[in-house]
Amino acid sequence: MMGNSLFAGCCRYVAELLFWVREETSPGERSPLVSDHSAMGYEAAARGPTKVGVSESALGPAPYPDILLGCAPCEYLRSEEGTGQDFSGDEQTGEASVDSCQLPAAPGRPARGSCAMAALLPDLEQESTPPLDYSGQRRACQPCEALAGRSSSFRSNEPEEDTRRSDGRDSDHRFPAFSAPQCSEALVRGQSAGSGSPLAKSRVLACNGKATSVLGGRGGRSLSGEPSSNPPGERAQVAQEGPSRGVEEEGSDGAGAQGVGCLSVDPKVGVGGQFSLEPEWEADQRLRQQRRKRRKKAASVLEEHPSNITLMNGDGLHENHKEETPQNGHEEADPADDGNDQEVIVIQDTGFTVKIHAPGVEPFPLQVSPQEMVQEIHQVLMDREDTCHRTCFSLQLDGNVLDNFAELKTIEGLQEGSVLKVVEEPYTVREARIHVRHIRDLLKSLDPSDAFNGVDCSSLSFLSVFTDGDLGDSGKRKKKGTEMEQIDCTPPEHILPGGKEKPLCPLQPQNRDWKPLQCLKVLTMSSWNPPPGNRKMHGDLMYLYVITTEDRHVSITASTRGFYLNQSTAYNFNPKPASPSFLSHSLVELLNQISPTFKRNFASLQKKRVQRHPLERISTPFQVYSWTAPVAEHAMDCVRAEDAYTSRLGYEEHIPGQTRDWNEELQTTRELPRKNLPERLLRERAIFKVHSDFTAAATRGAMAVIDGNVMAINPSEETKMQMFIWNNIFFSLGFDVRDHYKDFGGDVAAYVAPTNDLNGVRTYNAVDVEGLYTLGTVVIDYRGYRVTAQSIIPGILEREQEQSVIYGSIDFGKTVVSHPKYLELLEKTSRPLKIQKHEVLNDKDEEVELCSSVECKGIIGNDSRHYILDLLRTFPPDLNFLPVEGEAMPEECRKMGFPKQHRHKLCCLRQELVDAFVEHRYLMFMKLAALQLMQQKASQPEGSASLENGSASPTAPFPENGAGDSEKPLLAEVKLEDGKGVENVSGLDQVKELTETIASDDGAVDPKSREVIQNACKAVGSISNTSFDIRFNPDIFSPGVRFPESSKEQIQDQKRLLKDAAAFLVSYQIPGLVKDCLDHTMLPMDGATLAEAMHQRGINMRYLGKVVDFIAKTPARTQLDHVYKIGIAELITRSAKHIFRTYLQGVELLGLSAAISHFLNCFLSSFPNPVAHLPADELVSKKKNKRRKNRNLGNADNTAWTSTSPQDLWKNICLEAKSYFDFPLECESVDQAAEMYSLQKITLLREISLKTGIQILLKEYNFDSRHKPTFTEEDILNIFPVVKHVNPKASDAFHFFQSGQAKVQQGFLKEGCELISEALNLFNNVYGAMHVEICACLRLLARLNYIMGDYSEALSNQQKAALMSERVLGIEHPSTIQEYMHLALYCFANSQLSTALNLLYRARYLMLLVFGEDHPEMALLDNNIGLVLHGVMEYDLSLRFLENALEINSKYHGAKSLKVALSRHLVARVYESKAEFRSALQHEKEGYTIYKHQLGEQHEKTKESSEYLKYLTQQAVALQRTMNEIYKNGSNANIMPLKFTAPSMASVLEQLNIINGILFIPLSQKDLENLKAEVQRRQQLQEALKRSDQLESEGKVPEGREAQPSPPLAAAP
Description:
By secondary structure, this protein is an alpha+beta fold. The protein is about 40% helix and about 10% strand. The strands form ten sheets. The protein has a five-stranded mixed sheet with strand order 9-8-12-10-11, covered by helices on one side. A five-stranded antiparallel sheet has the order 18-19-22-21-30, sandwiched between helices.
């Protein structure tokens, strides 16, 4: 242990060389498991050791927290605005102090001799609210990790870093034992650290740039992206395109200099984390050695994920579920899951090239991977420009036909250079139809109508309009043309600061490619189909009818040999071949011969098609709908018509055996094996694919049901009560049909039950217990109705529900049954879901044991699987909205007006809230126990009396179930003085050891210690009295459920726990959310991102009124103006949505567009009395009307909607806001609302359209005209479904992503980059090429490429991220705006200035549309625009943007913040360039004052500002002299030349980096050498320690070992 202390001392010395160290007080009472991931405030720091603030710098979260901040806030560079990055991954082991390190910033780029190190903020310092809740990543480096210690019974939040350390000291502390599986080599992880495996000590795993995609993946492309031998458009399958092109190539060096150092911190060292630096060349040496070793090995070792690794797959909404340790819900884990069981998987090394010979085309090479299937080569050929018109062919190798589903590695004789022949095969009817469909797809490939109509998973993307095509290859060409004259920088009028107009048309700019070249006038099925029997026997398969652009009408026969002209006309059938017949194997070849225009236009169409970015062409996993669309011409399309009318249920033409058995597919994919990585990838991929197909089919079915196109299975019942089956999916409507929900709120309860049920399904799926099955569930809102689509349990329709249910209750608790198998399965889920096993009484007063809520039903299907359904009350009830007689709520709740009667009694807490509450209690538990143990220690000689009294001890008041106010003094006491910090650590460690020993039932614990734990357990409400274990009983307060007398006390405890949870939401979570918004760690931009931010903290939307109210009462109200506005807009549009829902139910299909336009007029138009236009045929006789009324699902009068007026609607909106959200809206019309709350009508239109699925015509709307209504029925184009579904996750990929983030955050950029490239590979394997998580991955990768100096690679990755965000989230989603901003920065770095400006202008326009100008994010955007304009010498324009940014920053950050100082400096620089020195001086002086006040005279930044002031003064004086000279001597004046400097691109880029949160910190060679010497010394010590350890233990290391604290620094000799 001596070595440790010695090293600690040395490290302190080195740290002092580099940084000055300061102490901080404890970062508040936040749970150790909920990270406070912002770095500390500059200002706070400057004022000395006050309470931790949130940095001006870290003022933004990542929307996907891309880069984690470390735990000890290192505020070097408090100077550089927007930079508070820290690299300390060290744990503050229980001690409440934080070491802050400050590095002096150096102006400008690092000198050649110095070494640059990059620091990052959490993904560009300001970002919108996270679209994905990677709650796991935020926990990757928690302070208090050791404090929390993790008793074995509560391990759900172990940081990913610690994956299975077999020994507290790994061979190199800085690397998690979990490193990347290699591209061509698999990964090594876990136990190997101590096991002597030759790869055990590898620190970095190389991506050799040529390796194939990850194992098990189909179609693996090489990691180096497109194979170099292929032309760019050759391979449309981006799915496997790996991003790490050349990141690790031997020659390429990240940031340029040879010894770039990456700073990292040892997360295991304990209190004073030790810094170490390793120059990359050393890592490179090691890499090369490893590569040489590895090339000799054909097999690599792959170790299974230990089952106690946290798998938190956040999806922003509900999905941060955690997988638990084996005893926490994985008892059924296979013996094979044991970490020691390593399996060997042989992986072929790399891809190889084959030659393709196709008819009529020159032979060409194609790079393939051994894991690909033959089928995938087919796909590539069908996509290639020169072979795309072939569909019916086989591939032959030496005359043998290859099996389509064979993997290439299984084919004998297939090797580098083999020749594959494309051989045309005879057609069948199926093949002929597929061929015609494919040709039609090629003809329509540039037509966006599918995206506007929301079909076939097409969606819009406009990025190429602003980048003039693909940035990748053309980027290199553009570099040459950077002369200033060519750049037109004038922004469009409507995006200038202060503009009043917010036009809608620019949202979808005209894409030149969309005026597609017309190849044919008509291509359609002939009316002579199908061929008569005698023609079938001549090989006729079907007939087509074509009109060419030259107006030639021809009939074509598709026969087994191909396509030829026949002699039929529109009215005469003559199937004989025409002369000449032009027989061709492909339809395109035939049409090329009969129509010169077709030949010319088809060729150029295909050229354009392959030039488009592949990500613009592939479909998205789930349909994205556009709320605006231009006027579209409706063209003839035989395939579309056929699809619509030949009920093509579930795409049966591709599937043998007609319709798909969805239930079987969903359950079979879950049963796939998951023992190793390839198996898990295959399983997750199958689950994801089936889910997205099921969602698409369910959506189509639900629309058909509401449109009246599906026959009910109970047609005689009332319309509301009908149920439907279509395509093996069961559909039911959201009405309370049999008074099922009578006690819960009737129809309102029936409406919310499906979403609650979906949340339950999502949760149980995430826990993923083997043997327990849930139904495929999708909830669709369409035309005012809610439809639930579910897969069908085999056999359920053949028997009565009463007979089927063997667990749970079908009548909300009157009759209850249980079943041992279900109890066993559900018990495995009870720990991760925090559900308590409990007894209830049935109607015969018998006790029945349950492990879920009563209405959760268990049914064994005919397939013998155990299904659970009706999971609507998986989570405990929310008592704030469930008043119960005789139950008093805690004080905090009463202050906010709770409990409040809600419309239904199904209000549940969200899973995120339950998790946060339990974490909060766990921290409390540890602190309480530690405090008592220490008191026990202190008073051991004289008074054990105080402890014997248990909770009577005056110094440790254990409150019963300590909630509310009693918690505060208690926690205040737990916070020890800094001096006692070390003791505290050991105290917490003792607690951990104690709980583990007690849990293992070891008699060795003395009774006093046992009592301490018991007291702590009792105080926090744990259900066990030997370890921390909080669970909820979901049946408490459920109407109709009775509990046995014996569990009375337990029920009281549970009631108290529920009240505490309700109080926790109100007193911790809501203030926490508002604080995050105030600190700008959350930056919502629209309603959806605000809802996501609330959901992440576990706050339901019904609390929205309370959140807005809380903001209104906050002292810093003006700094929350943006959130307040979004909240009000959200209140208004949600209330309007509720009204619109019932409004639509009374509308017949023929009046739909009139009704919707009337509603929008009443909602948004200033026109005082819009009149609804009834469709003309409403005037038909009344008799007819009566007969029709029955079909209408609602019971309202069909024309009631016409009587709605704006006054009525707004009155109802205010009433709805009051009754549902408890918020008083004070407005009687839209104009009053817009004025009072400064809302934009266009923003309200966007919000209501997205929430209700309305699609409107893209044109300019005049909302303010008092003479005519804004909308007409022609403006309503469509109404789409709003779909909620489960999002299956890629868990392995997610781990790599987390590890990569942790690495980056420790400063290991290359390793981080590799891990993230690998994550990208795995994401691609599971999700295909398009997914929101791949988007996050690409963004972080681009960021790393940029920091490591690879600008073009950054550009390429960021382009993919921006494209993907447009496609999967929407063209104006807040994340898309962020992606555009990042892309602009990288374009600027690549000298593509005009592109950078276009992208920034686009981002600003979208921001104006989505929110408006008054938003903190707009300041960052305007600073970016202003800097780029400054760089191209557009000074006046630049000033407009920079001064606007200054104004916004002053409002949202306070006039004295560092943000404002930086803003002033930027403005001063432009005034200097304009030679207006007086204005420049004024702004710089203000900035200097702020720096001096915040950072002190001696700070680097203050000095820089002072220097710049001197320079400006000199320039001003020189100018004045010159002017005086001119006045004095007139034209003879002797004028000294003045220096007017245009800014250099490098200086502009440097400023851009600073405002976007990217810094380069120079480290001198001496610093590097010092630290390197320390590292080597440390490693030698470690080796020695390890050897002595091995001698001691000879084999097994005791389990508690890794928790032992290292000796504290104070003990250093």
